Please model this.
Amino acid sequence: MVEVSVIVVAYRSRACLGRCLETVLPQVEAVGGEVIVIDNASADGTVELARQFAGVRVVENPTNIGFVRAVNQGLKLATGRYLLILNPDTELRPGALPALVGFMAEHPRVGLAGPKLLNPDGTLQPSRRRFPDLLVLFTESTLIQWWFPGLGIFRRFYCEDLPAEEPQPVDWVTGACMLLRREAVEQVGPLDERFFMYAEELDWCRRLRAAGWEVYYVPAAEVVHQEAASSRQEPVRQRANFYASRWKYTAKYYGAVAGMLLRGWLLLDLCLELGLEAFKLAVGHKPTLRRDRIRVLAGVIGSGLR
Model:
């Protein structure tokens, strides 16, 4: 058994994967481990790029099976005591992986640890979260948040009341970079494949917490994250998957009726947003931008958020 298995799921990630692997491999060598890249039928040269890095195990999927299923595929291949789930649009700052591994070694009840995420310009990228209640699930990332971004429910959800420079237990962390303890994963199981992508880490952390494991934010480890570098290439699929995962999570933890109500509300919210964009187009405000947004919104609504 090696110390750490790094699992990177790639989809059309050639532009960012190389830099990710350049920052990961020296740190994996330092702690002792392996790197596994699962490619979801990129067809942009991602696989060829990954194969240029000695010691990286590359798995090619014939179709895009989704982030969650690909991570689970990597988990079955991994042999590490610790399991690092890492997005291809990330760069580990020096010492990040040893810091996470060291923290986990010193805190045996921590099942999952997340680093401090940074934007490419070095500013803080919020990654700590509290579990969302129904009020948050029905308002966050909707027109309500757009119109009233300073509401206290959002500040609390994003843990803005907690210091960003201190290690701390949290409900969950966003999934760009997560280090898990093998025993914890074996106890609660892999990611829930009902989620194609998005909300899977929220569900995982909730299961870990319910099983008695702690989830920690470890700011001594810093990771730069470009955020949605791959998924933004397909904005219709990105937004559709985001909202679909939200109502599926709601149905799982708050019941089928709540899930269906949220799905309906999200579709209505998207229709309202579409109407606003159509009005702005009609009055001649940034017509190219409006047409692009209308196209995306129409596609997301047409998906039915299934």
Q: What stands out?
A: The radius of gyration is 20 Å. Residues 128 and 173 are 5 Å apart (CA to CA). The chain has two domains: 4-230, 234-303. The longest strand covers residues 214-225.
